[in-house]
Structure formats: C-alpha cells, structure tokens
Amino acid sequence: MAVEKMVMMNLVGALEDEDKILEQIILMGNVHLQTDLSELYESHFALHVLEESLNEMRENGEVNTRGPNDENYSEVLSRIEYISKALDIKPKVDQAFLESSFEYGSCKNSIDEMYHKVSPIYEEILKTKETIKKYQAFRESIKYILDKNIDFSGLGKLHFFNYKIGKISHEDKLEIAKNYENITAIAKAIGTGDGLEVFLIIYPQKFEMETERILKSVNFEEVKIPEELRGTPIEMNEQIEKILRQEQNKLNELYQKIREMKDTYQDFICQAITRVKMTQKISNIKENIERGNSVFILSGWVPESQKEKITTQISTVSNKFMIVFKDINEIGKSIMPPTKLKNHKWFQPFENLVKMYGTPSYTELDPTVFLTITYLLTFGAMFGDVGQGLIFVLAGYILSKKQKDSFFGPIAMKLGMSSAIFGFFYGSIFGNEEWIPHIVRSVFGSESIMTKLIINPMENMNLILISAVVLGVILLLFGYGYSMINCLKEGNIQDGLFGRNGLAGLVFYIALLLIVYDIAFAPIIIPRGILITLIVISMILMVIREPLANKLQNKLPLYHEEVSSYYVESGFDIVETILSLASNTISFIRVGAFALNHVGLFLAFKTMAEMANGGVAGIIIMIIGNIIIIGLEGLIVFIQGLRLQYYELFGKYFKGEGVEFKPIQFID
C-alpha cells in the first residue's frame, strides 16, 4: 500500500563508453528516463568536473567524440524478419548473444548479403506455390466435364463469337431457364456436381457487355482456362498433371536450398536480431541525452533501493563515469517523479483497476488496497452465491493459466471467493436457498450463531438495504480520511482542512448524518443544537476556505478572483456539496438492491422450472438461468462495483494525475 520512493539519477560518462553504459542501463531495467532536461543543466558541475578529468586522455587520443547514430534500424529489422520468415526461423531475443563482440556495420552488410541471396529463392517459392494453386483450382473446376469431348482450342479460334465456362447453382440455373428467351447467348449445361452446374456459354462478340451483365446477375463463377492448356478436358487434365509434377519438383529443389541456408544462417539471425534491437534501443535513448565535448549526461528516475546496484553494474563496463543521486526534496516541485506502486502480490492485479482511472501522483496515497477490500465487499454483497462464486474462481484460474500476463484472471478468482463467502451467509448455492441453511442447522443446531448468521435477502429486505447504506457511509468516511492525508502531503491546507472533502467537509457530513439519525430513528446524546452549530461553522469554513488558508500561510493576495464572484461560486459550491453527499450516500443502496435483484432473478427461473413440472425440463431451465445470471448480471455487477469506486470514492480523494514508472527495458 505504498508508492516506492524514487531518486533522480544524473549520470555523466565518457563518450567512448556511452554504448556500453547505456546497454547496462537497458539490461537492468530500473531507470525511467527523464525527457525534461531542465534538471540536467542544474547539474552542469558534474559535466565540467568529468570533462576536466578526461582532458588529458582526450589530448592523447584516448577518447573519441561522436554524435548520435541516425541509422534506420527498422529497415534492418524488417529484413531480418523477412529472412526469418523465408527460412522458417523463429528468432528469440536472448541476452546471452549480447556477450559476443558486435559491429553494427558488419552485421548490416551481412544481413543485406543474406537478403539478396534468400529473397530470389523465397520469391520463386511463393510464385511456384501460386502456380500450383492455380492449376489445382482449375483441375478441380473441370473434374465434372472430363467425359465431355469438347475441344476448347477450337472454340478459342472463333472470329465472331466468344465463350466462357463456369459454375452456377441449381437455383440460379432455374433463373436462366425462366428468362432464356431474353439471354443473348447459348447456355449449355455440360456437367454437374457438389450442387453446382457447369455451363458452356457461347455469345456474339458484340453482345459482350449484355452477356456479362446477365451472367453477373445469376452469380456465374467463371472458370478461366490457362492460355498454355489446349484440347479437350481430359487432354487438359493430363497437361495439368504434367505441369504440377514439374512445379512440385521445382518447389522441392527450392525448399532444399532454403533448408541449407537455414542451417547456415540460423545462429547468426538469432544473434543479429538481439544485437540490432539493443543497438536500436541505445539509439532511441541517445535522443534524450546531452553531450559535451567528450562526455554525455543522462537523467532519469530510479527506485532508491536500486542506487547501489546501478553504480555497481555500470562500473563493470566503465570507470569513466560519475553518478549524482538527488532526493525529491533537493529538486523542488518543478519536476514530479514517476509513480511505481509497491503492493503485496495478492493486491497487485487490482493496481490495473486503479490505473484505468489514473496513476497516483508521487505524493498521493496508493488506493490499491482500499479499492481491493471495498470492491470485493461490494461485489460479493451484490452477487452472493456459493456455486456461482466458485464458477468465477474456476474461470479465473483457467484464464490465469492460459494468459499469464492477464490481470483479469486473478481478479475474477478473488471476486469469486467474495461471492462464495457472501453466498454462504445468504444461504444460496446456484439459486437454491434451502440446502445451505439445512446443512448448517443439521451441523450446528437451529439456535446456533452460525444458523442465525445466514440471512435470506428477500426475507430481510430492510436489513439488506439499510446495511448497504451504512456500508456506503463507512466507505465515504474512509474516503474523507484519504482526501485529507493526500491534501496535507501536498501542503494543501485549503482543501485538506477547509475543503468539501477535507476536515470541514467531514464534520459537516457527520453532523448531517447524526441529525438525520436523530430525526428518523432515535434520539442521540449530542444535542441537536450543537450539531446544527457544527454544520453552520463547517459551511462557513468551506465558504471562506481560500482567504482563510492564504491568511494562515501569509500568502497574498487573499483572493485570486473578484471577491463577489468568489462568494457566489462558494455559495453554489455548498449547495453542490449537500447534493453530492446525499447522492454519494444513497448511491450505495444499489449494493442492497442488486443483492435482492440477484435473488429475484433466481426466483423467476425457479418459478419457470416449477411450471415445467420439474424433471429434465426444470433442470435445463435452472441451468440456463444460472448461465444468464453469471454472464449478464455478473457483468452488470462488475461494472456497478467499479462505478461506486470511481464516482463515489475516487471522486472524493483520488486525482490520478501521476506518471507511471516505465523503465527502459530490453524486452518490453
């Protein structure tokens, strides 16, 4: 339940070791690059110190200065991917290949040479496969007319007529028959098979367009005869067999060449893609670093716990560098560190739900644990059923195994656990509300605490609805606490003490709740006059929060707008505060409403099953009912639970305006 502490790292190193140092930073994967370089210029002293220490080496030619590489690595990677596809190689990025020596220019030349060797063969393979596919398709098309003694070579020599052969469905054939007198062609059925009719169409050349239009209207699928084929269908079939044998032999020879190239180039391709990707990463970093005459400087954020590791790791490849770490307090508020959430493994999947709303800023409290607990409570209360909860657990487990990087699987498992727990106390398993209470009474007795803890929602509607509102009040009070802590951490006493979500707002809300309870339910110890006084005082504090906070902090001017405009706006803000408090509180009644709705849907399907006189039909109805409820209502409750978190709670205490910690990594 914390945001990991960050420090700013300013690294100055010799240009001759730039690539080696940057490679180590990438491999460590714990540096978030600072693209705002203003902090660099504040650290110019480090650049000056190191350049002085390297002057002597530079004069002796030991240090080579150079600018960033403008090489187009995407083109090289594209060629590597092409070669890999052609040779059926599945290259994997492996850090082990980084240990070998590497020179980019030589690698690029080798890749270009491979490309020019592989490309003609691979393109010829594609062309040959396309040729084989074409002849196989034509052979399939004429198999219905092999017994016809039609010389298509002769038809092709006609001077005033053209011809086509093609396939038409039986339904379209009937359309031709109905309108035969309007067709400007001779249509002759010459074969049939697989629900299709093969037609020979002969028509005058001057009616080409009309014939095309008519054939298109009956979905005529033309069979193109390759120009090199001659004679009758049986003769063309023999020619096709001969061509296919030739093309297949040619394809086998080409594949043999590909296999030989694969054996030769496979290791190099795997090494090359690793090295080129690393070189590309290094080049991308160079766009965000500064250079002096003989040194470079890089600025970024690192977890405080990683400081020693970074220094030690870089020292393994260079001794010509200097690192200056600065705490956030030394930098000021002009640059905000990125946020890296640090939670127990059990809570980590729910970090994604927080990030869907926004990333906590560095000074904000991480709401992940609070969201996890409250979301599980509200979801379980709205969707309480042992059987369906266990279905969620099973589905989440399967999803976690199939998609290890997915966060939804672990979340579904935990939501299912919450649903099953609440389902036990609701006495519901797959909609049946008799089995669990009966078992509990049999084991613990009808007067035991366990038996009394089982509450049927439909028989205790008022209790369920009131409990939902009470839960909402408790969660909103925690929200006030989060809001005050966040404001005070930022030094914002205006909102933390006097704001609608601060101390004044909290007093106003509690006093208002007590008055409502005193009027609607039972008298309380605190006199109503004191509560009204607290409400009035807190309202006044919320109205004058800006000038009061500025006065306490000795800030001028007291108002940042016209005084009259400020108080008009503050007055409307009080009205909005009252309305939002009522809305936020009542909104939690949906938790109880969905709990009742969940039971009500089951009762509907149970009634339908009883109307079917039970038996197989009744069982099928209950199964379908459970599937619908799990799929449809489960999704609705999932969304409603998020809505309560985002609108009623996050809107009170969480801004989510931070920048997520995204370290430079070799494999994203």
Automatic annotation (TrEMBL):
<dbReference type="GO" id="GO:0016471">
    <property type="term" value="C:vacuolar proton-transporting V-type ATPase complex"/>
</dbReference>
<feature type="transmembrane region" description="Helical">
    <location>
        <begin position="411"/>
        <end position="429"/>
    </location>
</feature>
<keyword id="KW-0812">Transmembrane</keyword>
<keyword id="KW-0175">Coiled coil</keyword>
<protein>
    <submittedName>
        <fullName>V-type ATP synthase subunit I</fullName>
    </submittedName>
</protein>
<feature type="transmembrane region" description="Helical">
    <location>
        <begin position="497"/>
        <end position="519"/>
    </location>
</feature>
<feature type="transmembrane region" description="Helical">
    <location>
        <begin position="525"/>
        <end position="544"/>
    </location>
</feature>
<dbReference type="GO" id="GO:0033179">
    <property type="term" value="C:proton-transporting V-type ATPase, V0 domain"/>
</dbReference>
<keyword id="KW-0406">Ion transport</keyword>
<dbReference type="GO" id="GO:0046961">
    <property type="term" value="F:proton-transporting ATPase activity, rotational mechanism"/>
</dbReference>
<dbReference type="GO" id="GO:0051117">
    <property type="term" value="F:ATPase binding"/>
</dbReference>
<comment type="similarity">
    <text>Belongs to the V-ATPase 116 kDa subunit family.</text>
</comment>
<dbReference type="Pfam" id="PF01496">
    <property type="entry name" value="V_ATPase_I"/>
</dbReference>
<feature type="transmembrane region" description="Helical">
    <location>
        <begin position="375"/>
        <end position="399"/>
    </location>
</feature>
<keyword id="KW-0813">Transport</keyword>
<keyword id="KW-1133">Transmembrane helix</keyword>
<feature type="transmembrane region" description="Helical">
    <location>
        <begin position="588"/>
        <end position="605"/>
    </location>
</feature>
<keyword id="KW-0472">Membrane</keyword>
<dbReference type="InterPro" id="IPR002490">
    <property type="entry name" value="V-ATPase_116kDa_su"/>
</dbReference>
<feature type="coiled-coil region">
    <location>
        <begin position="237"/>
        <end position="271"/>
    </location>
</feature>
<dbReference type="GO" id="GO:0007035">
    <property type="term" value="P:vacuolar acidification"/>
</dbReference>
<feature type="transmembrane region" description="Helical">
    <location>
        <begin position="617"/>
        <end position="639"/>
    </location>
</feature>
<feature type="transmembrane region" description="Helical">
    <location>
        <begin position="463"/>
        <end position="485"/>
    </location>
</feature>
